[in-house]
Amino acid sequence: MIRCTPEDMIRMIQGGIPFEAVSDDYSFQLKIEHYAPYMCGAVHDGNQFRKSLWANCTHTAYERWYEEDPCTREMVLDHPIVISGLDSRFEYDLNRGPDTCIFEDAWGKQLWHKPLSESERAISLNKHKRFYEVVHALVTKLEEIHGMVLVIDMHSYNWKRWDREVPTWNLGTSRIDQERFGALAESWSARLGGISLPNGIAQTSLINDVFHGRGYFLGYITEHFEQTLVLATEISKVYCDELTGIIYPEVVRAVRSAFRELIPLQLQEFQQRFN
User: Fold this and answer.
1) Among 51, 125, 232, 258, which one is least packed by beta carbons within 10 Å?
2) What is the DSSP letter of 207?
3) The whole model's pTM is what?
4) Three-state DSSP class for 132?
């Protein structure tokens, strides 16, 4: 892995050069083994929180971890193109637009002891901007090569906070073109529901039950690229103990192993429908 500026990443993307790199400010990383007709994103995987914000933050490291999506990058890491955030969403949220990506409060609790300075906000907003410049260049290149592109937008959510039964998998589709892509969303949901997980974890998969796929990552790509389908895929945190922070590596490995087979199958169906 190399360290380089987003501008250097964009130049390599435009030239069709495979690479694995971390941004020069260590805010995100991108792996391109080859320019496949699909990519995976894990925008909430990161937990870095820059030191200049520590004293001003009211949330503990655990409270931040609780709302992040640990291990989501690992779940899709076997695929040829993976882009993932390294910073915590409490610094700036890559799944929100630039106007709302810096929280004032988070999950019912004021985030900052005192309002952020304009200089601190500018640092965070610049990181957000540079990430999306790379995303834009990448999807542009993939559409240029393949015509149509599939994106797996990987997230997780806390199931124990709900006072009703919630699914193991939730697929959010409210912002995708149902006429063109609705059947593909249904088939992806069915594939997710068929994954076998260890430890007796029951498997259910529903569409728009807990979340509806209204995140900015999906929204940005869908708004700018008509030939790209983004599947906002949420796994409940059955792969960890939400209350202690313990990760269950055998469950993470099971999801990763299943995705090695299922994502290419979903891509194959996507291509058969549109090619």
Assistant:
1) 51
2) E
3) 0.97
4) helix
Q: What confidence tens digit (pLDDT) does each residue in 186-225 have?
A: 999 999 999 999 999 989 999 999 999 999 999 999 999 9
Which residue's structure tokens are 């999306």?
Answer: 132
Residues 6 or more apart whose Cβ sits within 8 Å of residue 62: 245
Q: How many CB atoms lie within 10 A of CB 92?
A: 24
Task: Give the CATH fold of the 2-274 domain.
Answer: Aminopeptidase (3.40.630)
pLDDT, tens digit (0-9, with 9 covering 90-100), for 234-271: 999 999 999 999 999 999 999 999 999 999 999 999 99
User: How many C-beta atoms surround the C-beta of residue 184 within 10 A?
Assistant: 19
Cβ contact 249:169 at 8 Å: no
199 burial level (CB within 10 Å; 0-12, 13-18, 19+): exposed
- Residue 65 burial class via C-beta count within 10 angstroms: exposed 0-12, middle 13-18, buried 19 and up: middle
Give tens-digit pLDDT for 209-219. 999 999 999 99
Longest CA pairwise span in the chain (Å): 54
What is the rounded CA–CA span in Å between residue 184 and residue 233? 13
The H-or-E segment that residue 231 falls in is strand 228-236
